[in-house]
Amino acid sequence: xxxxxxxxxxxxxxxxxxxxxxxxxxxxxxxxxxxxxxxxxxxxxxxxxxxxxxxxxxxxxxxxxxxxxxxxxxxxxxxxxxxxxxxxxxxxxxxxxxxxxxxxxxxxxxxxxxxxxxxxxxxxxxxxxxxxxxxxxxxxxxxxxxxxxxxxxxxxxxxxxxxxxxxxxxxxxxxxxxxxxxxxxxxxxxxxxxxxxxxxxxxxxxxxxxxxxxxxxxxxxxxxxxxxxxxxxxxxxxxxxxxxx
Length: 245
What we know:
Belongs to the sideroflexin family. This protein is 60% helix and 0% strand. The protein has 245 residues and is mainly alpha-helical. The chain has two domains: 22-80, no CATH class; 94-198 and 231-244, no CATH class. Helix 6 packs antiparallel against helix 10 (226-244). The radius of gyration is 21 Å and the shape is elongated. The protein starts with a helix and ends with a helix. Mean pLDDT is 77; it is low at 201-231 and 237-245.
């Protein structure tokens, strides 16, 4: 009851939380990555879509609260692509990034990795990122498939090169003690992922303004664009790396 009383008036297509404050933007992002939306049934999804359609056409049944409308919008935005109107494959939804990405992050941080295992885990990580990026792309602006492929190849090449190169250098550093060498090797995923983040941000061509939890945006994205997905994705990735280390 308390949450319902504090719930703001529903606005279709607008964020539920105040985007002028850090806390509001943070709560907005938490809503986006909420894994509970992965377990929404097909029946509830259709009910949520119908509820929003009824609101849009002014035929909303009596007794529907603002909280119900916000929840319906959250479910629809988590599952349905706003441009194509199609369901996003579960592992590539933003709400699925943490549960489906965590095993890959753990693999990246496994000790005593060989060159082959390093390549495999970096490739899996970048492949997952590329799939999430494509599934949540800004479909209002057609982008050639070749551009996505170029970005994917560049991401895999840069991440693998940095990770393998640093591992080889560390193994050849005879002056380092085994304990120091192990600690440094555990940190190798950071520059590999961070460098690709910088490369991806530089390559971004999305026309809309990315919404950041740290800085307010004069024109926030109502739906997280490919830009804000990328920013959010790497923020989550770095956080998981930090927690696992």
